[in-house]
Amino acid sequence: MAESMDILEQLSVTFKKFAVHGDHKATGKELNGKNWAKLCKDCNIADGKTTTSTDVDIVFTKVKAKSSRVITYEEFKKALEELAPRRFKGQSKEEALQSIYRLVANKEPANIGVTKVLKAAAVDRLTDSSRFTGSHKERFDSSGRGRGREGREELVENTGYVGAYRNAGTYEEKMKDK
């Protein structure tokens, strides 16, 4: 009996860890469908053979309240009871439930392999402003820092006696052309 209590405490810890995963506002009392699917995948409940991600989604929909988008800890245990006979077909209902509890107990969300680190050499080569040519070259100063709007467009000075007069000091050049 003490061992089963220990497993239930471990289940509770796992439930809370997955409930708050990816959501800084989560309280840890409710598990959404996305985190339920992640729990099943990370704990090897959804193995792709006996239990698929579709089975996981169906069980989630079955145990949650009709208008709800999340499941509570009690509904979580019901969902595990639903999945146990599917995942462990050769075992009795009680043995299957204990096996699925052992899969889930004391696990936490896996973050390894979620985002890949970019290859630094390729990024360095593509962001090296000294290799840029043409109009792209004008967008960076000699140190490689971006020049912002100044580098993207030819800025016009709004100086002069008249408000709409642009490019102060160019009047003589305009008059020569005529």
Descriptive account of the structure:
The chain has 178 residues and is an all-alpha fold. Helix content is 50%, strand content 2%. The chain contains nine helices and two strands. The chain has a two-stranded antiparallel ribbon. Helix 3 runs antiparallel to helix 4 (73-87). The longest helix has 19 residues, at 2-20. The N and C termini lie far apart (103 Å). Residues 133-157 are annotated as: Disordered.
Strand content: under 5%
Helix percent reads: 40-55%
Order of neighbouring strands in the sheet with most strands: 1-2
Low-confidence stretches: none
Element-level helix/strand string = HEHHEHHHHHH
Task: Characterize the biggest β-sheet.
Answer: 2 strands, antiparallel
Shape: elongated
Mean pLDDT: 81
C-alpha termini separation: 103 Å
| Total count of strands | 2
Region (Disordered): 133-157
Keywords: Cytoplasm, Cytoskeleton, Microtubule
Biased composition (Basic and acidic residues): 135-155
Pfam family, one: p25-alpha
